[in-house]
Structures are given as C-alpha cells and as structure tokens.
Write a structure and sequence with these properties.
- By secondary structure, the chain is mainly alpha-helical.
- The chain has a domain of 109 residues.
- 45% of the residues lie in helices and 0% in strands.
- It contains eleven helices and no strands.
- Helix 7 packs parallel to helix 9.
- The longest helix has 17 residues.
- The chain is elongated, with a radius of gyration of 25 Å.
- The model has no long low-confidence stretch (mean pLDDT 83).
Amino acid sequence: QLPPGLYKKVLVILHDSVLPYMNEPTLMMDFLTVAYGIGGAISLLALNGLFILIHQHNLEYPDFYKKLYSLLDPSIYHVKYRARFFHLTDLFLSSSHLPAYLVAAFIKRLARLALTAPPEALLMILPFICNLFRRHPACKVLLHRPAGPADMSEDPYVMEEEEPSESRALQSSVWEIQSLQSHYHPDVAKAAAVLNQSLSEMEDDISRLLELSAAELFDKEVKKKAVDVPLEFEPVRGLFGKKNDIFAEHFSLD
C-alpha cells in the first residue's frame, strides 16, 4: 500500500523512466493492475504502463475494457491528465477487431457525458467520436436514428450499467450530439453538425486538441475582428416608421 501522492509520482514516470530499463518489465504487472483498479487519477496514470505491457510484453487483462469503460465519468473532462487519458483511449479503441457493442458503449457514454462538458473538452471529444464511427462502420446505426428517444418510448441505453455488453448502446442513438448542435459556443455547434453529413474516410487529427484549454478558446475569441452589424434596414420615418404616416406630419423624432 502506497500513499496516493506517491502512487501518482511513481506512475507518472514509470512508463518512460523505469520500464524501458528493466530486464523483466513483466515484474510490474501486479503493481500496475492493482493501481489500475484503484480508480480516479491513479487508474488514469496506470494506463501508460499497462499499454506498454499489453503491446510489448503480451500482458493479458480480461476485464481491461470494462475497467476503461468505468473510468468514463463526468470528471474525465476536467482532470489534469485528460490529454494523456484520451490519447491512450484512442489507441486502445483503434483496433478494427473490437466488437461493435463495445465501441458503441464507449461512443454512447462519451456522448452522454458531453452534455455537461466544457467547450474546450467538446472540441476534442466530438472529432474523437467521429473517428470511432469511421473505424467501426457497424456503429453507424447510432446515426440512423437521428430523432433518438422521439422514435422510442425511452432511451434504451443504461448509463449505470458497468458491463459494456449489457448497456444496450447499439439499440440507442446519439441524440446527445444532435442536442449539442444547439450549443452556445459556435465552434462546438459546428463540430457537432459534422455528423449530419456523410463522414469522410480520413480521420481527424485530435492530437492538437487534446490539451486545448479554456484560456486558449477565450484568447481566440478576443482576437477575432469585430464585424459591424446593422441594426436597421431603412431609416425610421415618422413616429411609427411608415412613409406616409399621418403622425409624421405632426411629430418628429429629432
């Protein structure tokens, strides 16, 4: 048992400063799997080391995707290690051999959590979801029910279900994305509207969006050139704005 602060310090450097220099990196399997099961930021940081052991040292982790799915909660869009987590999640969901129900569960959960996410996170997660649709065409059934719950008595997706296979995501739709098309931030609304058209085959590059911050969005808006917006289409004439108004003969706006 280690204090949470020490866990974080170790896991931040383990994947690039420790594992590459070990004769037997597999000795860290138990430590990393236990850390992955702790939850919160510690689980996020353990992903880096697990990724190396799974891809380079044949670590088998039967419940890996179930645990990864459980890490998706409202705080995931606000944590300090958000960029690292989504970079690795993107890698883990890149395989075309993943079952459709699993990817659909991730898409649906990310979309549901996006309803309360900040704009800087939405500008990253919407292209992320689009990439998942490109990689896994079987999940596009979620796009063919654009009205969402309007076509059903209720949304069949079970958000509280911990097992992705039991979440019934494939029977649902991404109506949450349609809701985001009315988002107050114009860039978010534009990104959400991409799903209204046929998706291109080329994936979006999300690497530059992973660490997008609210301050950067604010600076971008501040630097935009202001456009003069006309408030009237024709000058006002008379009291009620009509050309041949009898009031114009007796009253003036000056």
